[in-house]
Amino acid sequence: MVPPVLRPSPTHAVSGTLAIACFFMAIILHAATWWRAAVWYPSLPDPFPTHFDGAGVPDAWTAKSVGAWFMLPGIGVAMLCLLAGIGAGLAWMARHAPTLLNVPCKDRFLALPPECRVGVLGPTRAYLAWTVMLLCGLFLLLVEGTARVACGVMAVLPVWPLLPIVSLILAGLVPCWRATVRAIDRAAG
């Protein structure tokens, strides 16, 4: 008999599809970030703003250079790789170091066989992909907004987009938690 968590279920199908869709969308958003940074670079003044206060007003500037301008998309690549690596490493951790994972119903999670623990983490992988996608969108907004402020197209960097992005990241925690608990319940039988 196949353990329940290894049988196809709507939750696993949705988690896997969501993770793949979010990851590809993150790649598209990140490519757009690099494209917009490249398009704006020739128009940037010297110096250009690199930091903004809470109202979106520039409060720090740096000399124009390729390294300084493309640092934000570079940080985005590092963040994308780090979170994608964590997502990819979850299966290894579930098999070999499950005590390091922070999951609901941890005692029941730890009692599961290793392959069942891997399956239970589908919602977590989907949440990580969701978060990466939203952060890539945020990086795109930051590059575009910084360039517009630097070139005088806008007076301030709008800070309102931060609230929906952070809200969407936090809102994803509840469905992830619930889906993980349901997966543990199914796996535990």
How would you characterize the overall build of this protein?
With 189 residues, this protein is mainly alpha-helical. It has one domain. 68% of the residues lie in helices and 5% in strands. Strands 1-2 form a two-stranded antiparallel sheet. Strand 1 and strand 2 form a beta hairpin. Helix 1 packs antiparallel against helix 3, helix 1 packs parallel to helix 6 and helix 6 runs antiparallel to helix 8. The longest helix is centred in the N-terminal third of the chain and has 31 residues. The N terminus is likely disordered.
Question: What structural keywords apply?
Answer:
elongated; 189 residues; 2 strands; mainly alpha; two-stranded antiparallel sheet
